[in-house]
Amino acid sequence: MKKRISVLLFMLLCCLSFPMVVFADGENTARLVDKAGLLTSSEESRVLALLNEISDRQRLDVVVVTADTLDGKTPRAYADDFYDENGYGFGTGRDGVLLLVSMEDRDWWISTSGYGITVFTDAGMDYLSDQFLPALGEGSYEEAFTCFARLCDQFITQARTDAPYDIGALPKMPFQAGVNLGGSLLAGLFAAGIITLAMRCSMKSVRSQPAAAAYVKRGSMHVTESRDLFLYSHIDRKVRQKESSASHGGSRTHTSSSGRTHGGRGGKF
Amino acid sequence: MAQLQEYKCPCCGGAIAFDSSIQKMKCPYCDTEFEMEALAGYDRELKNEQPDQMDWEVSAAPEWQAGETEGLRTYLCKSCGGEIIGDENTAATSCPYCGNPVVMMGQFAGALRPDYVIPFKLDKKAAKDALNRHYKNKPFLPKVFKNQNHIDEIKGVYVPFWLFDAKAEAKLRYRATRVRRWSDSNYHYTQTSYYAVMRAGSIGFERVPVDGSSQMPDDLMESIEPFDFSEAVDFQTAYLAGYLADKYDVDAQQSIERANERVKKSTQDSFRETVQGYVTVLPESTNVQLHNGKAHYALYPVWILNTTWKGTKYTFAMNGQTGKLVGDLPVDNGAFAGWLFGLWGIISAAAFGISYLMWLL
Predict the structure, then answer these.
(1) A155 vs chain B: nearest CA distance in angstroms?
(2) CATH of the domain at A36
(3) Is A141 in contact with A39 (CB distance < 8 Å)?
(4) Minimal Cβ distance to A196: which of B200, B336, B350
(5) pTM for the predicted model, two decimal places
(6) In a shared domain, residues B69 and B192
(7) Over the stretch B229-256, which tens digit does the pLDDT of each residue have?
(8) How many domains does chain A fold into?
């Protein structure tokens, strides 16, 4: 009886200490850590399977982490430290990418490392985040993470076969038929309305003449006084927008607390 | 005293009328043409004979009820003896029985004598052609209106106009701004400079026309302007033969307001054009003093075309000198909707196609 209780206690302890950690095949750290509990277990296993499949095939870790609290750290520091401390990354460069989603202040951060820094340029990450942030904002977490994983796959393939996605070489946004159709209909109605109203106005040709310009006696206009007096002037000043460094392309890097080099991008959702 | 004047051909005695294509009097029976100058002398001769030809009926037939004849005048046609009824302003018409053109001389006596007349240059056929051109390229014009195209009435009318000369003394002040933009490495600058702009001077106007007939809508008459006054000639009643004419029933004093309104607007426009090189110009004070000269009385040629459609009367007016034709047309709302939705569809489809092409590139 005592033995059974202690076994049960041990199992309970195990569950409490590693509540949401799912281990990846052949690795000692899971590629999906849902500390905030945003996913159901079935969703979790689907996302994890996808992350594992992509990571192993591409030889580059694609990791998703969710958190309830950042423990007072910045999202960047938390994501970098989480990556470094849990030993993610393939090879000596510790190639990988990590998406952190924190529910504390609804922060997100993408941290890149090793070859991941090359794959995910600043412009590339801006594009990437534009794709999955709408789903993240709506609370469709599985959709957001799946979108992130599939795009990472696309980005890595692109970088390995050609050059990484960067300014001027970003993947095409999908054609938004609905938005374009709506805009076209509005523009069409506006243009058609102006044309037909102008045509309708041409049906009316009887108008009073406001002026008598046709009856000015030739050469009869004499300007006797013509003074232009300067009164005052004032100057408005607007701060010039600095051109963002993203326009130079490539990835900016920084050093994490453990002394490793990371790239990254983040914001709120 | 009013009496009728018919112009008889000295050759055959037929009634002659002014022919706009040759700008002479022409006898339709024997094709003899007469110079206007020759007729001026003839005209004077006829005036001397006037006292002998007082066959004007003072009172109407007893069947007329009291008040009914007010504003009406009856004349006896000298050719056929038929009774011609005109209103008190009718100055030229044709006899309803024999069709001979007649001119009521009394309507041009004394102060009523016009100073100038611009003779008709375009005939009835030109007016019909102009109306057909007016119907063209009007997709909203109801098909039935275009196809039926029966004109109730076409009449060549000499419309009385008052011509005003005016000298305007203007003194104007504007508030104007200039904007200069430049940038350095940190800021964009916008400098707005304010100016007080003063202008003063004078400008002259001659022969600003104002419709002197209450029967003619003023906006219709203003729409067919301008008339080319260089073609005006000294008035002779012979020009009226074959056309309708009214004498004025709105006098110069009543008409001058409208002329002054237009002169004032034109004066402001002309001086506004001298203010150049500013981004915005707002008038702050405007002072226009008008010195009106003598008003002249002239008859201008206008073709009036009337048609009725679905109980509404449509009036078109054509400048008898320049051929400019105006007149509001009915709108077929079905055609309007068809065009609106059709264009909407076409433009939207084109815009959608272009947006797709831009995405592909």
Answers:
(1) 20
(2) 3.10.310.50
(3) yes
(4) B336
(5) 0.66
(6) no
(7) 888 888 887 888 888 888 888 888 888 8
(8) 1
